[in-house]
Structure prediction request, 197 residues.
Amino acid sequence: MALGTATPAYELRFDAGRICLDLLATTHPAERLDSVEALCAWITGAGLVPEGTPLAHADGPWLVGFRELRAHVGRLVRTPHAVDPPSRDRSLARVNEVARAATPAPLAVSAEDGRLVRELADPPTCAELLALVARDAVELLTDPVARAAVRECEGDNCPLVYLDTSRGRRRRWCSSEVCGNRERVARHRRRAALARA
Prediction:
């Protein structure tokens, strides 16, 4: 997809099990946060803001901020022991710094049909939304049970990371429908080729 074009919402993935891991998924198979519009679609899809929240004030620095946070979180989550200590420490310091910011204030308001829905008290700032993602990362990194459930997809050329909450912790792919199907098709083809030989 060309730089500056909006990523359709259906291409964004929200199945990694944590908001911070869903942010990491925006790099594969190509850059998904390739425009402010794509970032706004991700922010809404990830549930950082209620559906219909105006984000017209989002701009280029928002894109830079989310990509920067994504890089730091990725460094800490993917290979925490393989990263050189100074680089790891810089990423940890940045995630902690971002997590300290205030978060958007939610309100419960009555909808036209009488049910209560969530709205934000004020338009969210970039720092507030980044803080939500950074806090999610801090919670993941400091929760030994959740941290132990973080897995890298076993699919060919798939760098995605997800939280394995499956029974028996035997999930192998970021998505059974995507990487799992590719693996099953490849396995079937290998068997068929061997049977013909």
Remarks:
- The two ends are 40 Å apart (CA to CA).
- Confidence is low (pLDDT under 50) at residues 1-10.
- The first helix runs from residue 19 to 24.
